[in-house]
Amino acid sequence: MGGFVCASALVFAAGGAEAAPERVRFDIDAKPYSESLIDLALQADVSLLGASACGGGVAAALKGAYTVPEALGRLLADSPCSWRVLGSRSVQVSAAAAATAAMTPTPPVSVSEVLVTATKRVQSTQRLAVAVSVISAEQLAATGAADPGETSGQLAGVLTTNLGPSRDKLILRGLSDGAFTGRSRSTVGTYLDNTPINYNAPDPDLRLVDVERIEVVRGPQGALYGGGSLSGIYRIVTRKPDPARRSAEVSASTSWTQDGAPSGELEGYANLPLFDGDGGLRMSAYHELQGGYLDDINLGRADVDRTRRYGGRLSVSFQPNDIWTVDLAGTVQNLKSDDTHYTARASGLHRAHRVAEPHGSSIGLLAATVRGAWGWGELVSSTGLVRHKYSSIYDASAVASLYTANGSERAIYSDAARTEMFSQDFVLTSRGAGPFQWLAGLYGSDTVEDSPATLMARGPIGPLATVYRDDRRDRIFELAAYGEAALEITPGWTLAVGGRAFSINRKTTSDVVSERFAPRSFERRADFSGVSPKVSLQWQVSPGDLIYAVISEGFRAGGLNSGGARPLATARETFGPDRLRNYELGAKLHAFDGRLVAHSALFYDVWKNIQTDQFRPSGIPYTANVGDARVAGFEAELSYRWDMGLTVQANGLLSQTRIIRVNPDYAPELTRGLPGAPGFSGGVLAIYQRPVFRDLTLRLVGEANYVGRSRVSFDPALSPEMGGYVRAKISVGVRGRRTGAELFISNPANAYSDTFAYGNPFSFSQVRQVTPQRPRTIGMTLSTAF
């Protein structure tokens, strides 16, 4: 759940050659506008190309034969919405007072009314046999969540590591392969609209500016998304250009952190109609400065961990005819942290490092989506090109003697990577609400990663000199065909079967030079292929109530290790693929006219031959297969909406992870459970809003989430405990027709907690590392619309 949607537009593409001149027999009960519009689309055999709601209120029942325009007119007659025909095959529904709605808070919409596209077709969350959570644009604005880490507490079973901005890993359902990032592919696929934006890199931490919603699909999604979705999908859906009206908005924030430096943010967007209402252009931009709060007494610097992030997006949409629509978008972001965010245990907010450890990340994305709709189906082509560069510097003095023969006492390690990923996805889906539904797709990607690593050292005198370097290049080509078919075998019961056949080819080259040892090079290939199946059975108990069972699988290809002054043992030169099978039983229920909504799932996962990224004693990373594990858990999300304007959400995950087989080539023993997988995590979010004076609306928001205790590593000897802390935030604001103001406070208790027991791989085994929470921070936000 974790979200309520009230978007600005709902677009339908009609199924016939004209704008549905024929009459359709409708049978729609009285229910909220959003649910009524969903039923209309399904019963009329039209495709939804967007998601929206008209705010609060209930539409009248609609029974009888009408054209689609007539049905829309009747359903929306008493609503705060209007609609117009965009072409002979599409209709747009939007708020009647668009300029007013842009700034005035809208009552949250029940999760049962939310539409998602993460399953590659537009569906209501209440009708999907999969665990899906959504955070709407309204909820993102209310909570001030600016990146994936700040959304995690609003979603059941979603956690992030806390190494630092653009250095973290997303974790779903406690399915963690460890805290470190290396050669293994991410277990969570991160998408910007339809384009994957990560491979084995850490999450790029895109700032959530001008975003329509966040969709999270939990459980392996190998059948639809392939290897990068072992534990699920995190999808950022951006706002698309509005062809109907001009609009713009700017907001600015400033905040002060106790014992730290101030922070500031500036962001905004502008929307322009194009082509006489057949298209639009949308621009957004932002600049953010996160003030530091750690002082380095050795370097004599205060607030060393400052981070700057800036970027923007430009998108164009147009409809050349009644069948095709085209969306083009470009996104860029640059991020730079002046230093890392960890300290030594018991050092508080002070540290004593020899050198600064900065980190930088830049990402650029070009995407094109072409959509065509006919009476019997819909074709979507998604093309994406991603360039992601990131680099980190570490103090490697603790292992300098391993790389030099002259008694060096100072060393710096530079780890950099440049990834270029091209992806192409074609998916053809059936349309309408008949008893048989299907989709078929083809996917291809070509990924090139250059990852040079350098260690420089110096003795008591003299400059730094390179004593170790590994020039590595990986090229991964993936090709897959996938599909799914669903049949209503008896009224209310639907069986769906799907799968993905894939082939993955990897080529790795590496050239290692070292001061102490002979140089070495290799060029090797590895090929992987297989099938990831999925089967589900769902029972529509009543409208809005669903019980489902699903079996699904995820797969990650293996690869090759390189690097290190000394070569690895033969058994560790390669790492094999791993596979996860998920057994799940879930329920989606609502009561009290949709005011209470509950989503829950029981799951049991068997994870074979787990890949994990680890570090050698010299600090150089490598990837290994540690063994097998099983994960059993229960997750739940609840929300209740009172008529007085109060909405409360709660989420929680209970899980138990156990290692059931140890790979003797990796270690004689492991920790009992998976690292970074607490037994319990959960959160509560309350939003209250009411009119107070003329057009002003008061909004109060309170948020708190708990992250339980876990270990940082598989290795019992190097596995300090972390977690067991609460994150909290409170805000109060007023918003009017065009302007808004808000005051907020995060970490109000000024708690000091170890959020992540890791920071530097070269001293990790020698110093107990901790990453404290940002101290109490107080701030304000001002916004205005045009």
From TrEMBL:
Region (Disordered): 244-268
Domain of life: Bacteria
Iron recorded as keyword: yes
Residue ranges, compositional bias (Polar residues): 250-260
SUPFAM superfamilies: Porins
Predominant localisation class: membrane
InterPro entries reported in the protein's UniProt record: Beta-barrel_TonB, Beta-barrel_TonB_sf, Plug_dom, TonB-dep_rcpt-like
Assigned keywords, A-Z: Cell outer membrane, Ion transport, Iron, Iron transport, Membrane, Receptor, TonB box, Transmembrane, Transmembrane beta strand, Transport
Pfam families: Plug, TonB_dep_Rec_b-barrel
Compartments where found: Cell outer membrane
Domain annotation TonB-dependent receptor-like beta-barrel: ranges: 289-733
PROSITE patterns for the chain: TONB_DEPENDENT_REC_3
Membrane topology: Multi-pass membrane protein
Domain TonB-dependent receptor plug: residue ranges: 126-233
Protein family: Belongs to the TonB-dependent receptor family.
Protein's name according to its UniProt entry: TonB-dependent receptor
Source organism per UniProt: Phenylobacterium ferrooxidans
